Amino acid sequence: MTGLLLYARSRALPAALAALAGTAAFALWAAGRLDTYVDPDRRVPIVALAPLLAAAVIGTTLYTASDELDRTAVRPWWPRRLLQLAALTALAAALLPLAVLGHPEVFGPATVIRNVLGCTGLTAAAAVLLGARLSWLPVFGYVTAVYLGSSGARGRAATVWAWPMQPGAQPGAWAAALVAFSVGAALYAVRGARVEGPRG
Amino acid sequence: MSSIRVTGLRVRHRKTLALDSVDLALGTGVHGLLGPNGAGKTSLIRVLATVAQPSGGRVEIVGQDSTDQRGRAEIRRRLGYLPQEFGYYPGFTVREFVAYVAWLKELPGARVPAAVERAVARVGLADRIDAKIKTLSGGMVRRVGIAQAIVNDPSVLLLDEPTAGLDPEQRVEFRELLRELGASATVVVSTHLVEDVAAACTEVTLLDRGRIAYRGTPEALTALGAASHGPGDHPIERGYTAALRAHRAPRGTEAAR
Known about the structure:
The structure holds two protein chains of two kinds.
Chain A: H1 3-10, H2 13-33, H3 44-60, H4 67-70, H5 78-95, H6 109-130, H7 136-149, H8 156-161, H9 171-191
Chain B: E1 2-13, E2 16-27, E3 29-34, H1 41-48, E4 56-61, E5 64-65, H2 69-77, E6 79-82, H3 94-104, H4 112-122, H5 138-150, E7 156-160, H6 168-182, E8 186-190, H7 194-200, E9 203-208, E10 211-216, H8 218-227, H9 235-248
Parallel strand pairs in B: 3-8, 3-9, 6-7, 7-8
Antiparallel strand pairs in B: 1-2, 1-4, 4-5, 9-10
Helix pairs in contact in B: 3-4, 3-5, 4-5, 8-9
């Protein structure tokens, strides 16, 4: 068995791939149940929550059980970490939009891709600050709060702070999501997830 | 020639000075690292393992500067390390976990299967090599930790509390393994068990409050104990106590070295 395969298993990547596929299938099923072809606005729960689930799945792969031994690796970790995060994000960004094809100017594939980037970035940053096991929590709280509280929000600032609920063509929302992803990915690549429990 | 050369080492954890002005040169053999809790043993081992950065001083291992990126890579290739708690992946078998560490050490792929089997056999777990680690007892898990530390036939082997959780028979076998490894490598063993040091080490370094309190052979430490009337059931335990007290006493009142 090659080292790379062991690495993939150590990060629970096979289970994460299955979970991402399951999330995409669930989003597809939900889109059918909500009759989103009638009105693109009915896609809002999917474009907000499916990327959130995918980011939580990606967050679980950032956990390292043998952190202390991993630190003695001959090669620097940042390329592997970055590659893992980018590959899983790309996969989620490729699978989830299948549930909301069409209507790119409102809540279509672009919105889902943007939200995958933003949610994954926040999750990666949370893994660095809180640890991988709780990495889903801050982004879950933020997206839920925006989902419940941003319906009446207007103005340029709202397009930034309420980015998960903005239509796909909104530049402010894209900027916020891209910054979140860039900062989260850079932080995770350089620092790795915070050590949890007894030092291992 | 010394495989480990430490000069003026200082390690700080937030406001606490864990190690201060430590000078150390260690060559081939088994070196026991003794000291009370909080003396700085684990801090020293972690710096030597290149997982913690010193606040000051110089650390050279196998002739490479540990602060230099290329030097650090070379050190890690030739280093074996058993932390106090090494952590493992529950789904991994013994073979897979040791192979994973071999991969971290960049052992050539063709050599990995044989190196893994040899390392596991040396710790007496050949019959459990395909068992999941989560099904093993605490002592066996500790032996898996030792196996991963020796899979690359390291020039420098750092073991932090390696005998914790081992039963007496396993400890005796482990001491034999230590003596065998110490014939060709520099082995540093951090432990609270002075009898392990007496039985398996060629040199002893005693740390106290971040400084070196005593350096010598186990025999010299035992002799120090024989000459003192301090507490302890064994001469080396009395020697340990006497050396610590001499270090803590105001200068000039007692000489332990």
